[in-house]
Amino acid sequence: MTGSPKIPRTAPRKSATFDDITLSEIRRAAATGIYDIRGAGAKRALPHFDDLLFLGASISRYPLEGYRETCRTDVVLGDRFASKPIHLKIPITIAGMSFGSLSAQAKEALGRGASAMGTSTTTGDGGMTEEERGHSELLVYQYLPSRYGMNPDDLRRADAIEVVVGQGAKPGGGGMLLGQKISARVAGMRDLPEGIDQRSACRHPDWTGPDDLEIKIQELREITNWEKPIYVKVGASRPYYDVALAVKSGADVVVLDGMQGGTAATQDVFIEHVGIPILSAIRPAVAALQELDMHRKVQLVVSGGVRNGADVAKCLALGADAVSIGTAALVALGDNDPRWEADYNALGTTAGAYDDWHEGNDPAGITTQNPELAARLDPVAAGQRLANYLAVMTLECQTIARANGKSDVRNLEPEDLVALTIEAAAMARVPLAGTDWIPGPGGR
Amino acid sequence: MSVDTLNHSVLDLGAEPVRAVNRTLQAASGGAFTIRNPNGAHALACGLDAPVDITIAGHVGYYCAGMNKHASVTVEGNAGTGLAENIMSGTVRVTGDASQSAGATGHGGLVVIEGDASARCGISMKGVDIVVGGSVGHMSAFMAQSGTLAVLGDAGEALGDSIYEARLYVRGSVAGLGADCVEKGMRAEHVAELQALLTRAGYGDVDAATFRRYGSARQLYHFKVDNVGAY
Predict the structure, then answer these.
(1) Of B96 and A131, which is predicted with more confidence?
(2) Which of A42, A166, A362, B98 would bridge with B102, disulfide CB 3.0–4.6 Å?
(3) B199 SS3 class
């Protein structure tokens, strides 16, 4: 006998509820007394496009030859009322991001990459810069609550106008650009003292509700001779009603941004807990358009976590006319690139996780106004990377469309899709894979 | 289009749609126009970009003279929401009252409202000068960034809430000041500045020294948790 046998111990077990992220946030909050502000979109796991699959062709469906048969990708946006609608060569646009939140080099790179592929970029809160106008063949000018830098000359030299009601990262929220990023140039464009924390209003100063919005859109059209397509951008929250009201208000295009869509700076609690995933928002939006007989007449652009050509194809199959990318475009430029790992470590983070975009210390030179950091980004090379990425996404989308027998990527349809999870099936209103079951009212 | 006794070109909204009238006004490089029968039309005389002189004989709807540059627009009546919103330069005058958000986000120029202005007058103003002969409603000069708001009457609740660098002058009572807005001393340079503005607005006979001045305490310029109760 060598004494009592050793009693096996239960392995140390961390709580699924109080996980490491939660614990660290409790400690941070307890130490500082203030909520966490960060950039980017929702990081939690959400029902997303990965939960959908295309069926492809079979005996009952006829595919197109991958390298021989045409599969169109172009799309016209804004031909409901505008005399000069936008013609995009690919159904992927660059989402609104401001000069101020991004460096001038990054804005230039976005313009270069998008223009090389025949698509549009979008201004943000803070007005239009010469870099982005000069390098963007097609530029959408955002009309935001703050109206920073807003003027009729830029309105007229834009190719389209996007009235921003909300964005997916923070439906119902305004903005905050911390003083570190309010350089002399940014302050001048926004008519603010240099170095102060800039707050952006969450509501427009001169209209409230859809009846006012209709008149506001009329004014914008009158100022621009009814030439420019007018987009209305909403964060995904009540997509069926918001899209219907945007159509009623006279929008040419509705932009619908899910909660995975990024922001320059917002409270983490807002990003993670307000709004709905884009997967769940597209079908209600399309239903509203269809019921109003406006599907394909008022174009739907969706965004929020679009990463590759499969995501693009799934958005189009669910009824969108085009998609918009923000975070993915920044990554293509060089955001969160492991080559800057030492710098990320010095900031207490790691490549792939860096989201303190509001602090202006971006090692990649993208979300900064620090001249030395911004100079790290070569706008020509970064623009080429974005163009390459857009080309790949387009090719991927075409590959999927042809496999489903479509000669135009916008001919993809819900019937081409199945879902891997019950949640995704209910949200996207497509059958659970291997069944004919669509959960929820109106399913079959 | 005809010509009236003042040698103005006359545009009649009873006979032409807003689009046609605005197109004519936007194409003009100068001259004087009278617009008859506005009947509360929206977006009238907006987007002008030349030193034209426009008289609107009657009431107008939303966004009259929106984003005005260089033009001089007089409304002989009342104006709806967003009068002269985002005005860049020139002058917009209303002989009656103005609804909400008059002069909102204006970057320059002069807006004169001879009657009262409703809520949010001068909201988010960015350099425009606004003179109100009567009183202004609540939340006027909310987040006002720069420019001057002069009120000959009274101001409603939460005047200058979250104000930046705009200058506010009120002759009558102020129902309440918004977050970070405080009364400041009326020094000689402020009296002179205001007197010049009043004269420019046609109120040269009003003594600027009878006004009180309000502006930013600049305590909310940097987000601090200690200020959280103020937000």
Answers:
(1) B96
(2) B98
(3) helix
| Whether B127 and A191 lie within 8 Å, measured CB to CB | yes
For every residue of A21-36, DSSP letters joined together read HHHHHHHHHHHHSS--
The tally of domains found in chain B comes to: 1
pLDDT in tens, B16-63: 999 999 999 999 999 999 999 999 999 999 999 999 999 999 999 999
Asked if A150 is an interface residue toward chain B (Cβ–Cβ < 8 A), one would say: yes
Whether residue B66 and residue A223 make contact (CB cut-off 8 A), yes or no, is yes
In a domain, A246, yes or no: yes
Lowest mean pLDDT among A96-110, B83-97, B131-145, B215-229: B215-229
Chain A closest-CA separation from residue B150 CA (Å): 20
Helix (H) or strand (E) holding B170: strand B167-170
pLDDT at B125 over 90: yes
* Per-residue pLDDT at A363: 97
Lowest mean pLDDT among A128-137, A412-421, B38-47: A128-137
**Count of domains observed in chain A:** 1
Query: B222: which chain A residues are within 8 Å (Cβ-Cβ)?
Result: 179, 196-197
Q: What is the pTM of this model?
A: 0.95
pLDDT grade for B225, boundaries at 50, 70 and 90: low
Alpha carbon A58 to chain centroid distance?
34
Query: Closest partner residue to B86 among A150, A176, A226, by Cβ?
Result: A150
Which positions in chain A touch B67 (Cβ < 8 Å)? 151-152, 155, 223
Q: Which tens digit of pLDDT belongs to each residue from A231-280?
A: 999 999 999 999 999 999 999 999 999 999 999 989 999 999 999 999 99
CATH number of the domain that residue B47 is part of: 2.160.20.60
Task: Give which of A50, A72, A105, A98 is closest to A321, Cα–Cα.
Answer: A72
What range does the domain containing B111 cover?
2-230
Smallest Cβ–Cβ distance between B47 and the set A212, A216, A222 belongs to: A222
Strand ranges, E, within A165-261: 175-177, 198-200, 230-235, 253-257
Whether chain A has a CB inside 8 Å of the CB on B216: the answer is no
Mutate to test the interface with B, among A206, A208, A214, A230 (most CBs of B within 10 A): A206
Q: In CATH, what number is assigned to the domain containing residue A213?
A: 3.20.20.70
Q: Given the cut 0.85, state whether the ipTM is greater than it.
A: yes
Q: Residue A404: count other Cβ atoms within 10 Å of its Cβ.
A: 24
Which 3 state secondary structure label does DSSP give B37? coil
- Domain membership of residue A161 (yes or no) is yes
pLDDT in tens, A383-403: 999 999 999 999 999 999 999
Q: Containing domain of residue A59, as a range? A: 51-412
The dihedral through the CA atoms of A311, A137, A385, A355 has a sign that is negative
Q: Give the helix/strand (H/E) hosting A93.
A: strand A92-94
Q: Tokens representing A8?
A: 């096996």
Q: Which of B210, B203, B193 is nearest to B132 (CA)?
A: B203
